[in-house]
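Appendix C reproduces, verbatim, an entry submitted by the partner laboratory led by Prof. M.T., so that reviewers can inspect both the input and the predicted structure.
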Amino acid sequence: MSKRKIVCFGPGPKFKGGISNYNTSLAKTLDKIDNVEVHIVSWTQQYPAIIPREFVDKSSKTDFLDGTEIQVKYITNYNNPASWRATYKYLLDLKPEKVIFQWSIAVQGLPLGWLAKRLQKHSDIEVVFDLHFVIQKENSKLDQLFTKYGIGQSDNYIVHAYKTVDELKETFPNKKFKVNETGERNTKNDNTVIKLYHPIYDLFQPDSNFDIKQFKADNNLKENVFLFFGFIRKYKGLHNLIRAFKLVADQRDDVSLLICGESFWATLDNTKFSTKVKNAVFGLAKKLFLKKADDEREYNPLELINELGLERDSMVVNSFIPNEDVNKYFQVSDAVCLYYEYATPSGIESLSYNFKLPLLATKVGHFPETIEDGYNGYLAEAEDIKSMAKQMIRFLDKPLPRENVAEKTKELSWENYANAILKV
């Protein structure tokens, strides 16, 4: 009996970020299932060449695919349509049962739509788009065009929140979508939307030998540690978190704020001519297609640490965190802060659950679906700094049992997720 071949199309494990981790985790889960052969088909370059940012992880030493039979092919260059054709041919040669595309940004709609449209013509291949969002915050007319072209070529969809279902219906008002949480569907052209969840990352595990007390002592971390983790982007609201923490630190002397993450637009050497050219061209493109308020290249919330006098109350690791160091920052923390301005299902939320950390989040996006106020986390009003500080104080006064976090998320397994994808 031949194996079922599944392709996970998205950034391979050599790339930074949550989508790479997500695609890798999905592939590893599918690889554990009997009679399933898994391939990761990845970008070599995910975005237009003008984007001034380094996307490849050059610091991690851990190979997430050790011990698996997963085959990885880095082949698709956003900027080279010839590579799109090569990718299409490679996919056909694999003869997969399903190709699962990771959708996380509208600009990728051109190559992904091109590939999906051609794959959809083959009756033996199911094209599935795993949607991390549909409508971007910026949502320019160009974004809308790319989105409709990109995800409009899918047989079926996976979403992680009902908000995304609504966005899908808004984007394609003439399509009749069938929504379920089980994965039941016809293979082709069914427009089924499988509402699942963002599974708990198992790529990063607590280290029982890690000396938490020593790490806290070495880094002047106090008894209670609030954690911000991940790329520093404006929509994640770090500027509001720092201001809220200031209100807390003024009342309590037993708190620390731990900020771990790379500033999204500060990964290249700005003294290089190539970087200057990219910045100039990218800046022009931003002016043409985005409102000025949406250009966050000058966003630097870390300046608030000094402005508010929080140097002694904060620890900042302003760089990409290698895979082998991730556990340290979660293990020394007591709660994770997700004071986002808007939200799609968050990889940081999923990662936090893996360490059984309660969440302090804003009432945006899917957070009210996954965070039960007073049980596995506390919810603050969006853009309300006093409300955010209030929830931090509330957590200090009434810590939440980590058993609650484990109980709330026990069904959010990758195995359940993968089985829903494989069901037909």
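The chain has 15 helices and 14 strands. Additional entries are available on request from the coordinating office.
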